[in-house]
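EI: anyone free to look at a 250-residue chain?
SC: sure, send it
EI:
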Amino acid sequence: MITLDDVTLTFPDGDRRVIAVDHVSLTAAPGVVTGITGPSGSGKSSLLAVAATLIRPDSGRVLIGGPDGAPVDAARLSRREAAALRRERIGIVFQQSNLLPSLTAGEQLLVMGHLGGARDGGRADRAGRGGGRHRVDRARVAELLDAVGLSQHADKRPAQLSGGQRQRVAIARALVHDPDVLLVDEPTSALDQERGGAVMDLLARLTHERGTATLLVTHDLVHRGALDRLVTVVDGRLVPETAGAALHAA
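SC: here you go
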């Protein structure tokens, strides 16, 4: 689970500061895809960056489940501590797949495993579904590539994959360490409608199966059926969900 509690973020603009996120409170529950939408420049990506611990907010808390079940306030962590939390408990999928061109699909995941390192007390361990360290080896890579429908493409490099397939590799890579939180930024922006729908359906299925708390920024509501919940950001503030529903219906 991840909870943003009264989060405010500002950026300098000459002799003043511009508010990007304005006292936002939002919780993403395990096994639920929470979509975040709104006009361009409304603060959606800034909100996601705060959730990802990539930017420290001016005020408020960013609570992420800790190894013992107690939440950790990521807004109070040092840069080193935030980076460790991000590696171990947060999966991030960007608009572009950002795959390394010289590595195969399988190697992309193995490299992420070596960078992040294995961790004890993963969600499976805490729920009593297994014990020991979570190793990122070739068996783990094969499992994840199979989960995203790419088991036959493990040895292909990005140039040999379609845009949708590259995004699937990026999703598998984000899940390498079985994160508590999955943060996704405009996953369909570079895809046609059919491939975008397939990626959205995949994210929904993996979220439900793995119990991940997923926050997904999107401007494309064609695929809103894949979302369990949809919130709207306007001028850095969350619009009440009933008002947001009316906006999307209009």
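EI: The beta strands are 2-13, 16-28, 33-37, 59-65, 71-73, 90-93, 181-185, 213-217, 229-234, 237-239.
SC: 👍
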